[in-house]
Amino acid sequence: MNIDLAVTWTEAQHVDLTGRAVVVIDVLRATSTIVAAFHSGARAVIPVDTVEAARAMASRLERGSAVLGGEREGLQIDGFQLGNSPLDYTPEAVAGKTVILTTTNGTRALLAARKADHVVAASLANVSAAAERLHNRDQDVTVICAGTEGRLSLDDLHCGGMLISRLLEPGVVRELSDGARAATEWFVSNAGNAEHVLRSCFHGQRLAALGFAQDIAFCFQIDTTAVVPVWNGHALVLDEVPRAPASAQEATGEGADRV
User: Fold this and answer.
1) Contact 140/60 with Cβ under 8 angstroms?
2) Is the full-model pTM beyond 0.85?
């Protein structure tokens, strides 16, 4: 298995994803929100690039079947039912519904990955389940970190390194690109410090300043669900009943609060 990592969605646009399995990561907050939506019973999540495209998509769906979610500059978009806070994606808000989502970084990363053979969304909440799915496919992997406005974001790098570490097995040869090695070494050197990484990184500090400290606390929890959203060519969906993941503490030595 060859493992590559793009540190931003803009870099991923220039990477050949043909025949590869791709995992998209935007811990703060798009993929954490997507995973939370499915954990709460969402039927599907459709990532779109622009606010206008989101509204147009909603107008084509049956009334009451979809909700609009997303952010610009971290804040909920006017006229949208939901923002980009995973705490908003409760069963009452999204169960049985299609979420049409547009964000500054994460949905663009998902759209950049669409030409890959297999695409999943991951966050710290489902990192072990996502890694297990990729491991079982035994396919070359590219990790796409969304980044923040075209620049590296340490929260995504930490999660990417954690996921790659789950794919490494004693005695099994994995070929890691420089990006994949850098992410893994960053994670190993900061193992047990996911909370500090998310709170201290640039994007974490900006979200806290906007009043989203509770989102950060939610997003640094590890392996709280086994749902793995998968791109089906039109939307992210769940295509199998999730199984309970192994405890994060056993897997990495990191503590993991449960929600």
Assistant:
1) no
2) yes
